[in-house]
Amino acid sequence: MNLLFICTLNQWRSPTAQEVFKNKPGIIARSAGTASNAKRRVNSTDLEWADIIFVMEKKHKEHLSEKFPEVIKYKKIVNLDIPDLYQFMDPELVEILTLEVGEYLGRS
User: Fold this and answer.
1) Neighbour tally for 54: CB within 10 Å
2) C-beta atoms surrounding 20 within 10 Å
């Protein structure tokens, strides 16, 4: 299963999610950001590749809808509703991600 995690700058939240899920059996994880100055900016190839797209905030889903409407038309996009309050691998962020994303994977 291909999981794509998206935040704004691809600096803290989405790279943490990628790190948490990248070694889980049967899962390939990537991360990207929506801002023009993101460390790694989301593109149509990422979106086509993903089985599930996890966005950290509503504004990220809105960005995808504006920039890539045809690519995401039939994609499952989940808003995790995680505010930009955490650093990379913050234990609280890891716990939230594990619980929230785990629900969509059938395990936590």
Assistant:
1) 28
2) 19
